[in-house]
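User: Could you walk me through two proteins back to back? I'd like the raw sequence and the structure tokens for each, with a short line separating them so I can tell where one ends and the next begins.

Assistant: Of course. Protein one, sequence then structure:
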Amino acid sequence: MQRSLTKGPITGSILLFALPLMLAYLLSATPLGVTGIWLSVPIGWALADAIGIGYYLKKKQ
């Protein structure tokens, strides 16, 4: 279990859970169907990573 002390890691954890879930719902309604559900996981990871990197670079300045 991750213990986060700042809002950055907490936000990242929520995004890591929520993005694939939302993407699975949206992509399953497209012609991709079940394949869209499977694609939502790596797409969600990539988006959560990009947001986390952006947050890190913003805080690093």
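----
Protein two, same layout:
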Amino acid sequence: MASTDSSMGQDTPPESLSQGSVCEPLIYHHVKKKDGSVQVDQKSDDLNLEKDSEDDKESPYALVIRRHISEKRETESVTVQINSQLLLNAFQQVIGSYPTVATDFKESFQLKSPFQILFHYWDQLATYRDENESPEMRQHLNLLFRFMEQEIGADKRLIDGMVRKEMISFKQAWAIYHPGDLAYTEVMGKTWLMRVRKVSYEESRNRGPYFTVHTSYCDANEQGIGEATTSIDVYQKESFPSDQPAKISSLEIYPRKFCHQDKQLEEELLTRGKKYISIKGVQTKHYEGIAQYLKEPPANFWDPDMADFPAVWLPFTETGRIVLDKKTFEEDNFNDSTKVQEIPDPELILCPPYALGYSMDRKDWCRFLVDNIHDVAWKEDMWESLILEQEQKQLLQALVTSHVYPEDTRNQPEQKGKGLVILLQVCTSPRPRALANEISRHGTPGSGKTLSAETAAEMSKKALMYTSMGTLNKYDFASAFEARLQELLRYATLWKAIILIDEVDVFLERRDNKSGTDTTRNALVAVFLRQLEYFSGIVFLTTNRIGSLDEAMESRIHLSISFGQPDMEVRCRIWQQVLDTVPPDEIELADHASSVLELMKHDLNGRQISNALNTARTLARFEKCKLNLSHIKTVLKVRQSFRLRMAPEDI
């Protein structure tokens, strides 16, 4: 591999030569012996150098090559120190910078096999050599190419052959990821383009060898828009079965040039990117479509390597309200936030296809596709449809609309006593024995309690967080209950959301402090009262039965509204409202008023009326005709027949 420069005589003292000025390689073989020692052999003696140089940077040779050889006489690794100033100039002009090489090419530097930088810039360096007019520059570049041909020439031809077939092997996969190039991946079937930074190889104890593609992408936070980094792992066993070459486009992430889509893709990504960066801070949105929720490990699961486990995202279909809040998601799940470095010209086509947020329905953190996120169509006229006594309705509206949320929501001591607690309870009247027993066990559902909280949320344009005592006290353990309650109240405070807690009977009943037999319940009530004291938002509590109200709980309630089974007048208004929601081209009632008068005679609550109408509409669609009174009567008749069979002796 060594060449002889005729202008250099063997009598020239090495100290008189400048660094890297000799266009020749100096080669050392580091041979490992059986006793563990290493013998260093010099393979070039043009300048009468008789010993191993301590500092390759000071060598007059353009290249100092060190080959590390095993006991079996096999090359384990190779390093090359590039000292030639001409080569450094060429690297500055052609490459500029490279992620895995910590230099700006102004000083001598070292490269290690497999010499990724030389592979990735082989063609560019060759073009620069061929077009350069300086004989000295071409001479030094020819020396570099002789080294490249010897060390990686065979690999390059092998890789080029696979790439022409759009295939690649695991060990050579690094070659297709050129730093700075666009890479293609998908999340939930949506494209995400990134910029390649580097590739590294590792091995997992559980999943075997893998390589990691380190990338950058465009992201935004409250400070601005810029560049963030992430990485994607590709495992050998999963992507390269039987250690055979894989189709490049089958990899989890691969170069954009192997994705055969037209330039319209970038235009679509630009539109999506503009929408993504508009999602800043906390926003309540409507979502329809596929999403992914973050699966948490079981409460009793522990593993010493848990910190290294990748996040597990599982698909589901979401239809409803969501809250987008990337900052809180990252704080709660990763104890950190994405670092976004502001840059002059951020590439919006590199924005993620999803936004991070919270599903009100699932009560889980999720990834929501940006394309499926829409503005909320708030039902501002919903207040008119709420059937309450005028005084109650006016007071509820005044309290909700006048409530002020503190600015510093993270300062808990400042929140004490600033919340609004509204109790929605059932007030029953004497009924036939069978129905009276039903009410005493279950209360009166469908009387308007949930609708009141929903109306308050719609009117104030705030998210509604619904939960129940059973959900909060899932593990029947005070500390676990407190943690779940704290989380609920914290999210509601950050998002200025309205809370609806159903079935809170256990918190409202007066505690027995004398017997000491119900310590678990007393502990839960104490936790609930303490957390409620420092909540500064709006919370609705619903109950279907209550004997005597606990004094401590009563002192924290600002408004209590009673609901009963709707009388005929209320049922008339409910029937009128639900019938008005049916589009005119889908309904055919000969006499609307008389139909309502006939329907209101049935002893139903609001939810039952709504369900009956929806079932009747389904029946009409099945018969391919417009909704009429007979459809509703059929549904009510079937319902009444069921109730008679359930309680034949009492009805």
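The radius of gyration is 37 Å.

Let me know if you want the two compared in more detail.
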